[in-house]
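Q: How would the structure tokens look for this protein?
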Amino acid sequence: MVYNISLERELSGTGSDVSDEIGGTDMLKGKVAVVTGGTRGIGYAIVKKYLENGAKVVLFGSRAETVEKALSSLKAENAEWEVEGDYPDLSDAGAVKAAIEKVKDKFGKIDILVNNAGISDSTKIENYAEGQFEKVMKLNVNAIFNAIQPTVAIMREQGGGCILNTSSMVSISGQPGGVAYPTSKFAVNGMTLSLARELGPSNIRVNAVAPGITKTDMVAALPDQMIQPMIAGIPLRRIGEPEDIANAFLFLASDMASYVTGEVLSVDGAMRA
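A: Here is the predicted structure in token form.
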């Protein structure tokens, strides 16, 4: 069906430009967001994107110095952005609950929770040290649960909310080595789908984004002879930018995705197997 947007605006009397509705800077106006792993890379890009679109953001980092560095950088870009930071131990359920409740006490609500913190791994199976597998699972899976549980109570009370998890391309295709990492991301997908079904009746949407190879500091530092074969394996023939991933998180957090839940959105240039 061909739909004439201009005619529909004229008939409805709204007169608004559709670009204002989907591409403006107010997609998250009035929203309060918590972003874990928000001090650099994809997490930092998400924080910045949310601020640009009118949200108030509390970013979580691993250390005081990295949080302060991120906040200083953001404030230097726009002193009017409402952004704060904290550094709870995400593996400590009590510490995370206290940090989440502090956000609620300060802003009165939490509309969006982004679970982005995590660690990667490429160790061959026979070379895993004792406790190494558990360490990856603890941050990539347990920490997400620790953040979601107290946030759900807040979101139920306020009548809804949005939870977004960072998955990975390897949660779909696996990877040859570092089995802990794709295992953890498969778990993230399972948590996402299950909680979407459980929390839907409370008007809480739960989705995940599965990035492909993205130009973070680690990837940008790789030599060209390693980068070029990566690019050759991506149908779009480029490595993703952090902003590409942040745009997906923006869409899923916005009212444009109000009927989207239980999805794992691949943002990988179709590199996944």
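The chain is about 50% helix and 15% strand.

The longest strand covers residues 204-211.

Upvote if useful.
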